[in-house]
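Run log, item B.
One chain of 340 residues. Sequence copied directly from the ordering sheet:
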Amino acid sequence: MGFHRRLAPTGFDRGAGAFGIAACVMSAAAAALGTLPASAAPQEDTRTEVDRLYTQAEKATEAYNKAGERAGTLRRQLGSAQDELARQQERVNTLREALGSLAGAQYRSGGMDPSLALLFSDDPADYLDKAAVLDRITAHQAGELRDLRAALRELSQRRAEAGGKLAELERSRKAVAEHKRTVERKLARARRLLNAMPGADRAAYGRASRSARFDLPEPGDGGPSSARAAAAVAAARSALGRPYVWGANGPGAFDCSGLMQWSYARAGVGLPRTSQAQRYAGRQVPLSQARPGDLVTYRSDASHVGMYVGNGQVIHAPYPGAPVRYDPVGMMPVASVTRP
């Protein structure tokens, strides 16, 4: 995504796919810098590389968020599975103890042939009463044995399920660590490149996205679609100026999807953690019908998200070093507009 290019997607639905991975958070902003002289080409190349690294880091950040969310879900599921496993083991132990007691009673009462026991009994009537009870114990023992077998099968299944959850959790932990390393590597290189730029160029890079716009349909200017949307907008506005920190979802710092999740949580609405999932967390509407509180996702992979607040602007957490702020809704190709 070169800083000389003035990209003009032909429409809302196609704009997101026209630029691929090179379309990053700052790509639209870069157009505002205008055409630079040939001597400035190395600095332009540096800015382009920084844009690319920020884009890749943001994609990795959303993958990190997704893996982290999955790990959290798996931890809860594993905890429940282990609790159920413990309860099932306790039931098996109880059944085994009951069967042991019944077997002992049967052994003590059944050591003599029933006819001889009746012949030599001091009280045949008492013996017959005991024999009837023993028959009932034997029948009950058979039922307990069936219950034990069923409980053992369920215990084995629970152990297998818990083992599967544990293995999946370990894979998810590794994915989190890998995405974290990727983000840190991309951001470290971007910081080195920015620090090597002259101060004026660094300042221009930070200001650029405020003035750039893509050729997109004008959004609507009605009020929020609901009281919840209004509360979410108020929460997002309260976060203006707070820093971008990848993987953060408030209240002191945010990444792009973390800001959306936090803002809607203040309104009592639960959103998924990632921008890709937030894209489908409600009803999609045309950009021309956007209202304050709607979520605007960017790029064909929905790897960035902001909140429409009216007057053609969104609030979003742009990239490291840039605080939560307003920017034009057309700062980059729009993928979708979603009304939670």
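Observations after the first pass:
- Confidence is low (pLDDT under 50) at residues 1-40, 115-120.
- The first helix runs from residue 12 to 15.
Flagged for discussion on Thursday.
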